[in-house]
Amino acid sequence: MLIINDILAFILELIAIALYGMMAYQLSENRFIKILFVIISILLFAVIWGRYFAPNASNSLHGWVRWVFEFIILFLPWPLYFREEYTYIMMAGIVIIINLAIQALLGRSNVW
Q1: Can you give the pTM of this predicted structure?
Q2: Could you report how far apart the first and last alpha carbons of the chain are, in Å?
Q3: CA distance 20 to 48
Q4: Tens digit of pLDDT for each residue in 19-29?
């Protein structure tokens, strides 16, 4: 069960990176600026994730603070990208909460 949940967590991270990149791509009309924004958004996500949420992070967050911030980081691009698609937004939120709860219950994060 934990392996399946780890795979789901990785897929959620990849989807979040893709959505941040797609949002950044829409910020400008200039193709060079679009690509630059995509690169910056992906690097920013990677730095934040690697610094605070990676398994071997040096400044890893702990407890419910980690759980809340991880939810925010993974969920934030959904309502911003799918503005009128409330079904996608709700499904993403539910899947992310279930994923984080399973991680907490099976020992991947120390929420309790």
Answers
A1: 0.83
A2: 20
A3: 13
A4: 999 999 999 99
